[in-house]
Amino acid sequence: MLGLLTSQRLTRCVKACFKSVTQTEKCFSNSCQSDEHLRRFISENTEIVTGQSLTPDIKLRLFTSSCRFWFERPELWPFDDPYWAIYWPGGQALSRYLLDNPAVCRGNTVLDLGSGCGASAIAAKLCGAAHVVANDIDPVAAVATRMNCELNGLEPPVCVTDNMIDAEPEGFNLILLGDMFYDEALATTLHSWLNRCIKTHSSQVLIGDPGRAQFEGHGIRRLLHQLAQFELAESVREENYGLTSSSVWCYKPEL
After folding, report:
1. CB atoms < 10 A from the CB of 149, how many?
2. Nearest Cα to Cα of residue 139 among 119, 110, 118, 159
3. What is the distance between the alpha carbons of residues 209 and 186, in angstroms, rounded to a whole number?
4. Which of 132, 135, 166, 241 has its CA 20 to 30 A from that of 115?
5. Other Cβ atoms within 10 Å of 207 Cβ, number
């Protein structure tokens, strides 16, 4: 039934079908259209969501079954894969942990790496972080993050669309990663980059993940200390292959 379509199915459609969009179209859509156009497009094709997550106090523009592209042919989507339009369980746990422990962010410089919808960046700002950077290589995600901050009555963070894990680490007190360990090669790259961040700047690293196989089976897992575990809402479980909980981990490498 179309009314029961979940983001689980949407994600499969994203991965399988959105690749048919040409690189030329993506370049035009992502880089060449105005911020005003992107804002209008996001407003028309998402819904403001509260509740049904671990952070009901944060408002976000997301895909729901009321949105056109929940049912539309994926090849009609004009941008890169819209990972920013789903509130993934690792990001939910990370944001909840920050809101429950505001001292972790208060007065610190914070990087939300792979920021997506910007929820963890929003949580960091709500907790009194001195400076927040949201990094996502999708320019549409950057616009969505700014819009979501405004929804929550906050000044947007600095939004960076360069791939920061290809660059020398900057001096952030706190680095947040939600749902970033979904691919083994990326996990290995992140492992190396995070080690450099900690060695160079003594950065604290917090990771949110619901226990995906790529995360649990990676070598970084033995270097993590679990800080919190949260039970996911039933709707979130259904959308994420039956995963029932999501945890926050502190990364402490043996340098």
Report:
1. 21
2. 159
3. 14
4. 241
5. 27
Contact by Cβ (8 Å): 152, 123: no
pLDDT value of residue 88 = 96
Pure H helices in the chain: 7-17, 23-27, 35-45, 89-100, 119-126, 139-151, 184-201, 213-216, 234-239
- Burial (CB count within 10 angstroms: exposed 0-12, middle 13-18, buried 19+), residue 85: buried
Phi-psi region at 128: left, alpha or beta (left = phi > 0; alpha = psi -120 to 50): left
Tell me the whole-structure pTM to 2 decimals: 0.86
Q: Measured on CA atoms in the order 176, 179, 181, 185, is the torsion positive or negative?
A: negative
Q: Are 164 and 190 in contact (CB under 8 A)?
A: no
Which ranges of the chain have pLDDT less than 50?
Answer: 1-29, 31
Rg (CA), the chain: 17
pLDDT given for residue 255 in this prediction? 52
pLDDT of residue 6: 43
Structure tokens at 155: 């000044």
* Nearest-angstrom CA–CA distance, 126 and 132: 11
Contacts 24+ apart (CB under 8 A), 124-127: 124/98, 124/157, 124/174, 124/176, 125/149, 125/154, 125/155, 125/157, 126/58, 126/98, 126/99, 126/102, 126/152, 126/154, 127/98, 127/99, 127/102, 127/103
Give me the pLDDT at residue 29, please. Answer: 46
pLDDT at 33: 65
